[in-house]
Predict the 3D structure of the following.
Amino acid sequence: MNEITIALGKGRLESFTLQAFKKLGIEFPDFTKDSRKLIFNDRENIYQIVLVKASDVPTYVEKGAADIGIVGKDTLLESGADVFEVLDLGFGQCKFAVAGLPDYTYGSASKITVASKYPNVARNFYHKKGMSIETIKLNGSVELAPLIGLSDVIVDIVETGTTLKENGLVVLEDISEISARLIVNKASFKTKTDRIHSLIEEMQSIVEREMV
Ligand code: PRP
């Protein structure tokens, strides 16, 4: 019987996360990139990984279907999930930014249109600036929006900057730094205290070691 269920998002953070667990001596021998399996047990049958869509990680953890999760701060901010964010894992670094055409200025427009995969993040950012916006929720290829007149600007993650550059867009404003976070279900934090606390401590020592 597994004691701890970990929600892992498919994609960017997948291999980083598995490497981090490997450094703790926790390995998932059945995990292969091409597999269609969604549940993996570690050798000792203490930990179980459930592989989910990255944007669903906060939901699995908030609802207690997973005890802990590894998730980008971007996804966490957008979800607004009621979970404990216990550790910045340091990997998966990128940033949230407003981007648009190089000559774009907010000017005197009464309302600007913002396309984003992260409408809540966009709304919060502009709300703090005292600006009202109309958000258009997209699910990908967001850079297209200002190019074909769907929106004035986009709020998106920028990692290498290549996607913006190749589409003739620039960062207009930085919003916040992003990296992978360890999140914990609030009830699990109380009921599985020992196991979860030691996992957090071990992960923290790896993060600190890698920063040196
Ligand atoms: C993300 C993001 C940008 C791109 C930024 O998209 O939405 O499009 O990566 O990365 P870069 O600065 O290194 O170019 P993702 O790759 O997740 O694809 P998507 O558009 O299908 O969501």
